[in-house]
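Reopening this one. Same input as before:
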Amino acid sequence: METVKHLARPLYATALLAVAALTACSAPASGSAPSASAPTTAAGSAAPTASDSAASGPYGGYASAAEACDAISTQATGASLLPLSAAQGKTAELEQKKAELAETAERVPEALKADFTQLKDVALAGLTDQSVYSNGQFEAAMAPVTSWLSANCH
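Same output, byte for byte:
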C-alpha cells in the first residue's frame, strides 16, 4: 500500500501541474491564426481532414485554430494522466487514449510536431518507468507544448 502512495503522489502532482498549465489556455478568437512560425497554405485551400498531414495547413490536420487548440490542450493534459489510467487496469480505455495521443501527434501543426511527439513518447515511457515524472523529464517535454498553446491559443 505504501508503494501505491509513493507512486501516486508524483503522478498527482504532475497531473495538477498539467491541468493548471493547460486550463489557462482557451481557443483563439474567431479569425485569429497561429503564430507566424506555423506553415501557411495558399488562400482558398480546402479545410484539412483527419487524414491530411500536419503540413497541410496552418492548423495542421485541424480545420480551425480553435479545433487545434482544443485537441492539443486536451491530449497534452491526457498525456499526464496516462499512468493513472494504467493503474486502474482499464486496458481498452488506456489503448484508446494512447491511440488518440498518437493521432494528435500526427495532426498537430508542423511547428509543434517534434515537441508534441516528444511529449507523447515521454508519456508512453512513463507507463513503464514512472521516474520520468519524478526526474523532470515529463515537465521538460510538456514545456514547449504549453508554450505553443500560450502563444497560439488565446
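So the earlier flakiness isn't reproducible anymore. For the record, DSSP finds six helices and no strands in the chain.
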